[in-house]
Amino acid sequence: MANPNVKVQYNQIFINNTFVNSISGKTFVTLNPANKLKIADVAEGDKADVDLAVKAARTAFQIGSKWRTMDASARGLLMTKLADLIDEHKVTLANLESLDNGKPYDDSLLDISAAVGTLKYYAGFADKIHGKTIPADGPYLSFTKPQPIGVVGQIIPWNYPILMLTWKWGPALATGCTIVLKPAEQTPLTALYVAALSKEAGFPEGVINVVPGYGPTAGQAIASHQDINKVAFTGSTEVGKIVMEEAAKSNLKRVSLELGGKSPLLVFDDVDVDEAVSIAHDALFSNMGQSCCAGSRTFVQEGIYDKFVEKAAKMASEKKVGDQFDSSTQIGPLVDEEQFNKVLGMIESGKKEGAKVETGGSKVGDTGYFVYPTVFSNVTDEMKIAREEIFGPVQQIIKFKTLDEAIERANKTNYGLAAGILSKNINTVLKYIESVDAGSVWVNCYDAVNAQTPFGGFKQSGHGRELGEDGLKEYLEIKTISIKKQF
Ligand code: NAI
Ligand code: MG
Fold first, then answer.
1. What separation, in Å, do the N-terminal and C-terminal C-alpha atoms of the chain show?
2. Ligand 1 within 6 A of CB of 242
């Protein structure tokens, strides 16, 4: 049951299956974004703590260690055990997630169920990762042996804390890597709780380490570390570039990046308008718009534009904004003051540049970081709200005439994470699928994100893929072995 008074049991750094204070002794405060009140003080890790965590992860990765000699199937079973424990503790975890992040309690439960599914999906891969025998020229038996990449650093954001953790841990554990994870400073609590569950599941010491702390200190120490083999990052494009630069300047560690987006959703006038309005609404407003793949440019064909705008504004205006623990709440607070100010600033910029506020357009009260669901019409491509990631409950509805024009405008962005199209015309859909620059294309739906299907970005939305079988590649080195035949 939803319980805002859930007790915080774990607020320290997790290294070698033990909770410890930071070496500096420093802590930071994590807040409830609905009332700005302190939830807990959390140990603030920085470079020295990351060094200790990396040492633990390196030791756990040594040849002959418990982890390296464990049967792959046993590794998969440990992952399944962890998934089952997360499921068993889902009420506590959902309460901690909602308290820390602000998302409605039922949404946290949905995230946790997806997180459990992700770990189970990858658990099944643990003993199914294998190479090829290759008929190479010469007197050789040649084959490939995929090996775990080593110690991986993982830096995750605050929008889906526990889900992002499992997107990172799933492929890392299935391939046999060891982990140093830094949760976002806004939302460290569920990662620490899951760390405790990983010990209970039976993971050997040092395989999983969690160091809460800030980006420019703990995050930077991971990206620039000389003994981390790979860094996986989810967050802003701005920081993604820093992570890549630090990786290059240090030890050329492998890098995978899942960054922002400004994803187009095209709505053609042959669709059922009510259904289209509802899909486009969810595409943008789910998680209060704080989603990397949010459908944040709603392109609507001119024949239904006015009707669509009217219905979209009505739907948004009827959403209940409120405390994340109130069961009638559909829109909770934004995660923190920085996001709150950024989103309000974007709304002001939309107004100034001549877009029309159809509903919302302001904050709600002063107790927390609440913003009314906002719908802008008369949005043009040059406006800041049509170009930059807002990461808040603000929908931009843009008019278009033809498919070719819409494709060109949809692609006129540095991002390329996701794209949607709503149309009954198969050829319209097929041409869009072929032309749009996006890692995921959703047809007559949106946000069909699943553990089984790869997810990631074209252009400046990222590098590499997470989820699906493709997600494993980011955690493997391929070793080619050639043995001379001497008979
Ligand atoms: P951010 O990119 O600063 O933070 C994401 C993670 O990176 C956090 O764990 C943070 O501590 C870490 N980090 C920050 N600076 C770092 C550095 N120099 N080196 C290593 N790690 C570092 O994102 P932020 O500031 O929380 O949000 C800003 C904007 O980024 C949002 O408004 C949104 O547009 C975008 N964003 C996109 C996300 C996505 O899912 N793609 C998630 C979060 C934010
Ligand atoms: Mg930042």
1. 70
2. yes
